[in-house]
Structures are given as C-alpha cells and as structure tokens.
Amino acid sequence: MGDAFIRHIELLGYEKRFFPSQHYVYMFLVKWNDLSEKVVYRRFTEIYEFHKALKEMFPIESGDINIENRIIPHLPAPKWFDGQRSTENRQGTLAEYCYALVNLPHKISRCLHVVSFFKVRHDDMNPVTDSQIKKPEVFLLPKDSKKTPTDITGPIVLQTYRAIADYEKSSTSEMALKAGDMVDVVEKSENGWWFCQLKNKRGWVPAAYLEPMDGPDESEEQEPNYAGEAYVVQKSYTAVEEDELTLKEGDTIEVIHKLLDGWWVIRKDETTGYYPSMYLQKAGEVNTSVKSELRNRGAPPRRSTIRNAKSIHKQGRRKISQETYRRNSKKYFQNQRNMRGNPQNKANVIIEKNEPEDNKPKAQPAVPPRPSKDLILNRCTESTRRKIL
C-alpha cells in the first residue's frame, strides 16, 4: 500500500477545556485513504503555525512571489486573546480552509507536513483533563451548516448522560459502554438509538442504557396523545414481553405515546402495547430508506430488560401501565361519541357560563369634554391655535 494521505477533513466543532487553564480546541474528523476515520484536537495557534510553515514550504503557491499565483487559502492570525465568541465565529473560516487544503494539488495536500499535522497524537487519544476542576464543554456544528461563516447559526451544546449498565456492542457502528461511563449525546434518534461520543470513541448506543445527570428524563417524554397518530407497520414483530404487541407488515395502527427509548405505545382497535418505533412509518409518508435501515439494525433493548441497572437517582422514570393507556383510550372515545351525539352540550355550557356576564352592564370609559375655543387660544401652542382659526 502507498503512503498515507488524507481524503477529507471535517470540522466537528470545538471544546472548551479548563485544565491546565481555560482554553479552546477545535475538533476535526480526519478521513484517511485506508478508510479509517480519526478525531483530532488542535488549538488555533497550532493551526496558524502549521499554516505559516506551509506557506514557507510553497512560496509560489502561497503568493509570496506573485499574488496572482496564490492557491493556498488564507487564514487570519490569532487574536491577542481568543475567547469563546472568536472561537465560535472562526468555525466557518476553518471549515472552508480544511476543504480547500485537501483539494490542493497532491504535492501540497499529501505532503509530509500536512499528513503529520493531522495524525492522531497521544493527547488526542487521552485528552489531559482534571475532573475535579470541570469537565470540558463540547460545542458541535449543526448538521445542516454550510462551509461559510454567515451560514453557521451557532454551536450545539451536547448533553451529558450516564450509562446505567454495561452494554456490549453488536456491530461496528455501535459503541460499548461500562456502567458509570459519561457520554456526550450528539444525536437523539426517535428510534431509540442515540449517537454518542466518549473521549475519542463515537457510535450508536441504546437510549435505554442512558440517564441524564440532573434527574430522570421523563420531562423529555411527551404526554400521551389519546387521539392517536396513524402509522403503518413496516416490519413484523412478535411480542416478547407481556406488554408488547404482535403485528404484521402493512397493519395500520395509532401511536398514542412516543417514548425516548424507541418503544412507542400504540393502539390497535381497543388493544394497546409497546412496539419498536423503527418498524413504523407515518401514514402517507414516503421514505425509501426505511426498509434498508431496518435490515441493518434491530430494535434497541427496553429499559425493563436491562439487568443490573444502577441509577444514581432515587426517583425512577415515570411509567404508565397498559391498563391506564386502555382506560384513558376508552374514556377518550366515549367523550368523542358523546360530543357527536349531543353537539349542543358544549355550546349550552358556554352560554350558561356567559349569561350572567352578558346581563351585567359594562362600564364605559368617560369621554372628557372638548375644550372651548377661548381655552385653546389662551393655553395651547401657536400651531394648535392656527388649526382652529
């Protein structure tokens, strides 16, 4: 195999670190010619020193001899003091710089200077931190941001979650966890698989294995919607637990509660139960990528199936029984039937409630008397006097 070179460099965002003192480092995802992908961390002062050395190595391409021959991109010098605002605002420029750098002629983009700078270092694998001071804060670029400074709407602050039990990954796209691991959640997918990062590792993790640090995450779960949303089953599933439903591909159901772990409460006729959300598709929507996704990954585990789960919170996540779901569904349908059978009931209640208020005479604001012409001439300004003359 030939010499290593970089295929692509993507700016992921930046970290605010507090050890040995407060500073900022940019995070880059570097994709190599052997199809490996590595995350590296660099300060802007390092990047600028790299840039200056690159210009000295290629004086013609840097425009030092003739400015018209310049192809190496520009990079502004560091400020005397780089705070969070300047670090954030510089992201668009850095994203453009990396894109242009990789697309330069091979003698520049694949030279030893470039390859060495973006190689993984020991500090990239084991960042120097001190948990007694403060954990680094991570700010990611939005997914849909473009490579121009004006298009970047701002960073996303990652949420930190804790693993409640050990998790062994079953595919290369997943990430193994140990109980107590602190991970940053990059993306929360409604199918119950969350994309997380732990130091230099990144991968998909079942949401059921994670809990927020400040309390049970029931506040993130929506309230049940007993009116229901129509969905179509995209993949059959046979119930394993008593509170799950067995359905076939093509069945039409109603989703009444969307939960974070990817197991939604659905209603089929008058029966309710849990079903994997990744096997459902909203009625009327067309998504050709759904079936391929189903073949690549199975349903995430449920919280109730995790053994030796150890939470740091005294209060657990709020759980509604299937009997409560069924009872409230029946109550909802009964109210709907009553409304259709007696359409005047609601109007009568409103009228009876409003009648006493309507009978009361409403106080009218007092209209002040208009001042006399003599009073206006004596007390008002010259412009006001001219209007009445």
Automatic annotation (TrEMBL):
<dbReference type="InterPro" id="IPR036871">
    <property type="entry name" value="PX_dom_sf"/>
</dbReference>
<feature type="compositionally biased region" description="Basic and acidic residues">
    <location>
        <begin position="352"/>
        <end position="361"/>
    </location>
</feature>
<dbReference type="GO" id="GO:0016176">
    <property type="term" value="F:superoxide-generating NADPH oxidase activator activity"/>
</dbReference>
<dbReference type="GO" id="GO:0035091">
    <property type="term" value="F:phosphatidylinositol binding"/>
</dbReference>
<dbReference type="InterPro" id="IPR035756">
    <property type="entry name" value="NCF1_SH3_1"/>
</dbReference>
<dbReference type="InterPro" id="IPR032136">
    <property type="entry name" value="NCF1_PBR/AIR"/>
</dbReference>
<keyword id="KW-0677">Repeat</keyword>
<dbReference type="Pfam" id="PF00787">
    <property type="entry name" value="PX"/>
</dbReference>
<dbReference type="InterPro" id="IPR035757">
    <property type="entry name" value="NCF1_SH3_2"/>
</dbReference>
<keyword id="KW-0963">Cytoplasm</keyword>
<dbReference type="GO" id="GO:0042554">
    <property type="term" value="P:superoxide anion generation"/>
</dbReference>
<dbReference type="InterPro" id="IPR034909">
    <property type="entry name" value="PX_p47phox"/>
</dbReference>
<feature type="region of interest" description="Disordered">
    <location>
        <begin position="352"/>
        <end position="389"/>
    </location>
</feature>
<dbReference type="GO" id="GO:0045730">
    <property type="term" value="P:respiratory burst"/>
</dbReference>
<dbReference type="InterPro" id="IPR036028">
    <property type="entry name" value="SH3-like_dom_sf"/>
</dbReference>
<dbReference type="GO" id="GO:0005737">
    <property type="term" value="C:cytoplasm"/>
</dbReference>
<dbReference type="Pfam" id="PF00018">
    <property type="entry name" value="SH3_1"/>
</dbReference>
<dbReference type="Pfam" id="PF08944">
    <property type="entry name" value="p47_phox_C"/>
</dbReference>
<feature type="domain" description="PX">
    <location>
        <begin position="4"/>
        <end position="125"/>
    </location>
</feature>
<keyword id="KW-0728">SH3 domain</keyword>
<keyword id="KW-0597">Phosphoprotein</keyword>
<dbReference type="InterPro" id="IPR051228">
    <property type="entry name" value="NADPH_Oxidase/PX-Domain"/>
</dbReference>
<feature type="domain" description="SH3">
    <location>
        <begin position="226"/>
        <end position="285"/>
    </location>
</feature>
<dbReference type="InterPro" id="IPR001683">
    <property type="entry name" value="PX_dom"/>
</dbReference>
<dbReference type="Pfam" id="PF16621">
    <property type="entry name" value="NCF1_PBR_AIR"/>
</dbReference>
<dbReference type="InterPro" id="IPR015039">
    <property type="entry name" value="NCF1_C"/>
</dbReference>
<dbReference type="GO" id="GO:0043020">
    <property type="term" value="C:NADPH oxidase complex"/>
</dbReference>
<feature type="domain" description="SH3">
    <location>
        <begin position="156"/>
        <end position="215"/>
    </location>
</feature>
<dbReference type="InterPro" id="IPR001452">
    <property type="entry name" value="SH3_domain"/>
</dbReference>
<protein>
    <submittedName>
        <fullName>NCF1 factor</fullName>
    </submittedName>
</protein>
<dbReference type="InterPro" id="IPR001655">
    <property type="entry name" value="P47PHOX"/>
</dbReference>
